[in-house]
Amino acid sequence: MTRTKKLGLVGALTLLPGHASAQEAAVAVPTDSVFIFNTLLFLIGGFLVFWMAAGFAMLEAGLVRAKNVTMQLTKNIALFSIAAIMYYVIGYVLMYPGDGWMVPSWLGALGVAILEPVGVTAANADAYDYASTGSDYFFQLMFVATTASIVSGTVAERIKLWPFLIFVAVLAALIYPIQASWSWGGGYLSEIGFSDFAGSTIVHSVGGWAALTGAIILGPRIGKYNKDGKTVPIPGSNLALATLGTFILWLGWFGFNGASQLAMGSVRDAADISRIFANTNTAAAGGAVAALILSQVLYKKPDLTMVLNGALAGLVSITAEPLTPSLGAATLIGAVGGVIVVFAVPMLDKLKIDDVVGAIPVHLVAGIWGTLVVPVTNDGASFGTQLISIVIVGAFVVVTSAVVWLILKAVMGIRVDEETEINGLDMAELGMEAYPEFAKG
Question: Which domains does the chain have, with CATH numbers?
Answer without folding.
Answer: 32-430 (1.10.3430.10)
